Structures are given as structure tokens and as C-alpha cells.
Amino acid sequence: MKLVLETNRTILKPFEGDESELFHKLSCDSFIRKYLWDDEKISMKVAKDVISRSTRYFKRNGFGIWKIEYIEIDEIIGYAGLWYFFEEEQPQLIYALRENFTKKGIATEVAKRMVHYAFEQLNYKYLIASMDEMHHESQKVASRIGMKLFKREELNEKPTVFYKINNRYINKWNNYGSQNQPDH
Q: Hey, what CATH topology would domain 5-172 get?
């Protein structure tokens, strides 16, 4: 199973065990942490734990968290992947970019690649993504890749929405590019 994934503009590589500091730096970015970490700066211990679990998940299950390298500038601009957030039977789609890389179609491109990987390589029948209800841009990305809103819940006193896509919808995709799919 190939764990390095590509889109037209990005290379997605699993975080390595010694990259906890990079994950920590990205996660403490004010834009990323606002919705992903409930606007809390995570500790280095939490970052190390996430990367450690991600490494184990990749070895055992073929999924975890990938860092997103933007090819044009050879820089890590965020992360994406498949991750357990709640008591679910399979991991959820996750994507997080630094703010200056949003609204360029990159999140859509990467999310589409993650969904394709989950369906084609891991044989998932469906994939879910949850987000804070107030994170409208993330909801737009989910909608753009074919996910449909299917549930609202209060989690940790925050309104949370859940989007879902079934495996049968992937056939309409022909590449992982961003043409005609900007992040608005």
C-alpha cells in the first residue's frame, strides 16, 4: 500500500515519529486550532501522542495523518488524513490548512484525495467528516467533494455537523486537481 499520495499541487506524506514539533507548530497555528482544537494550544505531549498513534495506525491499518506539502513552494502547509474523534467504528476525514492557503482549492483537492484513498485502498463503504457548525468553509469543502450533511449534534457544548459520502459517488471523479473547484 502506497502511503505517499499526490494531487496536482500537493504531496501528502505520513508524519514521521520525529516530526511531533512540526505537528505541534501546525496545530498551534491560530487558524488551524480555532476549529480543530477548540482554539486551545495543544501541548507538546499531546502532539507527540497524536504522532505516535498516527504512526501505529499507519503500520497496522494504512491510515493516519499526512502532512501536506505544497509543491509550488516546497513547504508544509497543513495536514489531512483519517482519524478517530469519537466512538466511531472507522476514522473520519480530517483536513487543516494554514489560513493563507485557504480559498485556493487546495483543501478540496486534498480532501478528495483522502476520500479516494479511503475508498480505493482501505475499501471503506462510506466516510464521515465532522466539524464545528460555525466552520462554514470546511462545510463547503465537504459539500464540494460530494459529502452530504446528515446529522447535527452538541459535542462539548459546541454545535457540530456531520457530513457523509458513500463509496458509490467516487466514480464521478477523474483526478485530484482543483480546476473549477475553488475553496470559497
A: Aminopeptidase (3.40.630)
